[in-house]
């Protein structure tokens, strides 16, 4: 069984926000709703100062705090490690939003259901590739099977020594190059 | 900010309901002839938690639009929210039956009162644990918050019941030294617990420090100092504490009645504001 994950290379990211737009289109979100958000900050010390843009979305954690607190089991983890929301079970209590350390969840205006990035999951499998990966103009995003050492994403993670955004906090499966 | 005033109302009403149930049980045991206080507590209990649950459902929009989904709430015992649902599933019917028996002037069996007592404590405590297990927010994620919520719940339930006792049966109420003493002590204890929590949250993390700063000297300073500290804790402590511990005499004057009403109402307002500010002011840890 595959174990899906992603690499995001912030050094390649130019901050064009195309991934967010592609995600909104793919998932039929309102213009005010987004599964991807950005943390922007300055790093380094004068005179070597950089502007860093960190795209954030559901990190598809193995120790997913959202799934742990969800009282209705609407949030669940597939065998392939993708964290999903069953919109027919969600009551919109927002407990998962409070528990998520990455602020990755939103309430859908139309339904009141809490949703988030699902790696463009459809018909029992993730997008090939997910919309954000397919649209990225600079190749900053790589998607694939983390358990397959020959996969593009595994090789990229090894090459760049990419790390989860918050260490081993939640065993997340999006790896960042910063 | 994820939750708002609706959730604060629920946390307050569920706590106050539990406190009122416990007050009624206490009054029944210690002052068997004080009917009005006991009846008041037993009726307030189901009414408050009922209104609170309504607030919860209004806030959970996806469930409100598809009410059958609320049945899924029992499916994850690992979630504190599901545990709370279990507690309420027992507490709510018990509180209702107790109120009904009281209204029908029938005797409430002791065992039923005891089940109610256990689950009233469970309900009051779970409202604190609900927030307490959320690691993202330092103001919530500490061991003191559930204790603070329990003490505040007892205090609010006592105040709501006392308010009715004060207006309908003042003669008897003024002689209930144990009730009055407990009330004063609860206010003092709550003040100490609140202080302890804020010190520890402030020291623990920068998000915690920013949260506490917003409460004591930032955008929430006015409701915090005027509402929670002065009106909700210090004023009731002084108003009730003076006759109980200093003059030690039964008050009969109208001035003292008015003061007592202010004190009890203050506890209720402070109790609600405590929940509201805990919900609103909490800032998340930033992991990025």
UniProtKB/TrEMBL annotation, chain A:
Residues 4-34, 49-80, 81-110 form the 4Fe-4S ferredoxin-type domain. CDD domains: PsrB. Keywords: 4Fe-4S, Iron, Iron-sulfur, Metal-binding. The keyword Transferase does not apply. It comes from the Bacteria. The keyword Metal-binding applies. InterPro entries: 4Fe4S_Fe-S-bd (IPR017896), 4Fe4S_Fe_S_CS (IPR017900), ET_IronSulfur_Cluster-Binding (IPR050954). It holds the Pfam family Fer4_11. PANTHER family: PROTEIN NRFC, PROTEIN NRFC HOMOLOG. This is 4Fe-4S ferredoxin. It comes from Raoultibacter timonensis.
